[in-house]
Automatic annotation (TrEMBL):
Natural source organism: Entomortierella parvispora
Reaction(s) this enzyme catalyzes, per UniProt: 3'-phosphoadenylyl sulfate + H2O = adenosine 5'-phosphosulfate + phosphate; adenosine 2',5'-bisphosphate + H2O = AMP + phosphate; adenosine 3',5'-bisphosphate + H2O = AMP + phosphate
PROSITE patterns linked to this entry: IMP_1 (PS00629), IMP_2 (PS00630)
Designated name of the protein: 3'(2'),5'-bisphosphate nucleotidase
Residues annotated to bind Mg(2+): E72, D128, I130, D131, D275
Length: 337
């Protein structure tokens, strides 16, 4: 694919994710936990979620006004008298990341541009304004995740990870990384402090005994006891690397760990497309394979969720098949899928 393919979308996505990441950092310095709303799925959503979505949606609209957006948030909790206090804070913070200030009405309209239903045809952006809200609240890992999907295929992915160390071997060193990918053009890391992009690739280990795996901090996001059984079956003895958000995709893409397991915790739960779109492309461009627990590719054409997939498994192409075999043996010991 020509390096010019999706060049404009790539540049705009970088700008949007950087601006939103900076707004999130400003919010964190002012955050009061009492201002957190609780969503139906019990995960906290903060002022930063709304501010980041407003910033990204506004920047996307300026360059691609006809592109729909599948975003995580809507504005209903910001409306009316009950939403006034938070609405005013969100407006103030969102405008610190934008060249042209929004009004209260345009703020709500901008946030609600993210309510597209998704689908199999045409262009759409998938946005998670803060992936890993609990990590954000702890001052640990979270990510601003943006992807362009065209006819059900992820074509561009940009993730901002403000708290991720630039070098995993130096956890106390510089933090703040962008991860950038376009289908067919490779995977790259750019530090917040630089405009230089460095190619990244997954660790091509020779033996699974040398591997480590990434999983969620929250046990409610992935079945950690089953993960331990899978690791044992594969001969993996290293302790798992646990972190919130799509930073896990970023970490394995640059070789910090080799396998990402997100095992189902509920038969009825459907993964959201914004939680995996940009990360799955990054891993694929870094030499990996991302599938569900049955080895099926993730299908981003079914709406706002990965309705036909269960769980997520990401690993280097050389070992992905063996990881899937182990997952099947542990999750389906009787051979029943």
């Amino acid at each position: 694919m020509s390096a010019l393919a999706f060049a404009a979308e790539r540049a705009v996505a970088i700008n949007a994710v950087l601006a939103a990441s900076n707004v999130c950092q400003r919010v964190f310095t002012k955050l009061v936990n009492g201002e957190t709303i609780t969503k139906k799925d019990k995960s906290p959503v903060t002022i930063a979620d709304y501010s980041a979505q407003a910033v990204v949606n506004s920047i996307l609209y300026k360059s691609f006004p006809t592109d729909p957006i599948v975003g995580e948030e809507d504005s209903k909790d910001l409306r009316g008298e009950e939403g006034r206090s938070m609405r005013e804070k969100v407006l103030e913070l969102a405008n610190t990341g934008l060249e042209s200030a929004l009004s209260e009405d345009s703020l709500l309209e901008t946030i609600d541009r993210g309510t597209f239903a998704g689908g199999a045809k045409g262009r759409m952006w998938a946005l998670d304004p803060i992936d890993g809200t609990k990590g954000f609240l702890r001052g640990e890992q979270f990510a601003v995740c943006l992807a362009l999907i065209v006819d059900g295929q992820v074509q561009v992915g940009v993730m901002g990870c403000p708290n991720l160390p630039v070098d995993a071997k130096n956890k106390d060193g510089e933090k703040g990384c962008l991860f950038i990918t376009v289908k067919g053009q490779g995977a790259f890391q750019r530090n917040f402090s630089s405009n230089t992009e460095t190619p990244i690739a997954m660790s091509a280990i020779q033996s699974l005994a040398d591997a480590s795996f990434c999983e969620s901090v929250e046990s409610g996001h992935s079945n950690q006891s089953e993960s331990a059984k899978i690791a044992n079956l594969l001969g993996i003895t290293k302790a798992p690397v646990r972190m919130d958000s799509q930073c896990k995709y970023c970490s394995i893409s640059r070789g910090d760990a080799e396998v990402y397991l997100r095992l189902p915790v509920s038969a009825s739960y459907e993964e959201k497309i914004w939680d995996h779109a940009s990360g799955s492309l990054l891993v694929a461009e870094a030499g990996g394979i991302v599938s569900d627990i049955h080895g099926k590719p993730l299908d981003f054409s079914k709406g706002r969720t990965l309705a036909t997939n269960s769980g997520v498994i990401a690993a280097h192409a050389k070992i992905h098949g063996r990881v899937i075999e182990a997952v099947q043996k542990v999750l389906f010991p009787e051979g029943k899928l």
